[in-house]
Design brief:
Layout lengths: L2 H12 L1 E4 L5 E5 L1 H11 L3 H10 L2 E3 L3 H16 L2 E5 L3 H13 L3 E5 L24 H12 L4 E5 L8 H5 L4 E4 L4 H14 L3 E7 L2 E7 L7 H4 L11 H4 L4 H19 L8 E6 L4 E6 L9
Parallel strand pairs: 2-3, 4-5, 4-7, 5-6, 7-8
Antiparallel strand pairs: 1-2, 8-9, 9-10, 10-11
């Protein structure tokens, strides 16, 4: 029996009739049965999940995703790749949420190690992880959350000589960085490679967010052509309370989901500035052209 027919038969045999949160009848399959199919067919777990969804059998772990992104959207997510630049306050939460959403492959880029002042906000950092590589800890975390997600941990510093190589092939790149120079470098590489770049930054009780698609108005429209490219973000002065990066990271993930699934409208050619102290949100239209290409 060929693998496709065997997989189809096993899915039909192991799925069960259940109900979605709205009470409608659906066919579902649990994680242990998906793993049993993997063992018998030698397929990867993500491949089996996609096969299930293509036959309108919903893996239980994605049940609460389907009402928002649909079966077709979840297949797109499982088939997609996202690069996360930075695995700290923003990046850690981005990684956590992308894994739970079921994005099929994550490239995680960071050359840092956890230190004590990370513990207040970096969601994947624990006391037992101090002095450990951030990308290694992130990869372990993802494997515990969603073993269908393939992780490529990259323990390297992003620079002009490697940025295109490291993000090439991603469907979307997400910003978890704290350096303006590196942000601009990544944004320029994304523009060159025609990859959407989801920008987020925080400072104290405030944060900002936008999506930059190739040819869109970019980071230079925020910071101006005379920006200090050697500067670090304002958070080094204003602090980084845990809720601020969590909120911006969550919004970045929503942008990535919209890009991958084609659902909704990404925040393009405008910057959202959120002031959590005042409870306000300001939308700022951008005037300048795209960022320089690295």
């Amino acid at each position: 029996m060929d693998t496709l027919k065997q997989t189809t038969n096993l899915i039909s045999e192991l799925c069960v009739i259940g109900k979605d949160p709205g009470g409608r009848k659906i066919r579902t399959i649990c994680l242990s049965d998906i793993r049993a199919i993997c063992a018998k067919t030698n397929l990867l777990q993500g491949e089996v999940e996609i096969a299930c969804l293509e036959r309108e059998v919903i893996p239980l772990r994605y049940m609460r995703n389907i009402g928002t992104v649909g079966i077709a959207g979840q297949i797109k997510l499982l088939s997609s790749s996202a690069a996360v630049c930075g695995a700290g306050g923003l990046g850690g939460t981005i990684i956590e949420l992308l894994a739970r959403q079921g994005v099929g492959r994550l490239v995680i880029i960071d050359n840092g190690r956890f230190v004590e002042n990370n513990l207040n906000r970096q969601i994947i950092a624990t006391e037992s992880d101090l002095r450990r590589s951030k990308v290694k800890v992130a990869a372990e975390r993802v494997s515990r959350i969603n073993s269908s997600v393939k992780v490529t941990p990259v323990n390297r510093f992003l620079e002009a000589s490697n940025v295109r190589e490291l993000i090439a092939g991603a469907d979307v790149v997400l910003d978890g960085l704290d350096s303006l120079a590196t942000r601009l470098l990544v944004a320029g590489a994304c523009n060159k490679l025609k990859i959407p770049f989801v920008h987020g930054a925080i400072a104290g009780f405030s944060g900002q967010l936008m999506t930059v698609c190739p040819g869109d108005k970019g980071l230079s429209a925020i910071y101006g052509p005379d920006m200090d490219k050697g500067a670090y973000g304002l958070e080094t002065l204003t602090g980084n309370p845990p809720a601020t990066p969590a909120i911006i990271a969550a919004w970045e993930v929503q942008e990535a989901v919209k890009i991958i699934t084609g659902i909704g409208t990404p925040i393009r050619n405008r910057l959202l500035f959120l002031d959590f102290a005042e409870g306000s949100l300001e939308e700022i239209p951008l005037q300048q052209g795209p960022d320089g290409i690295s």
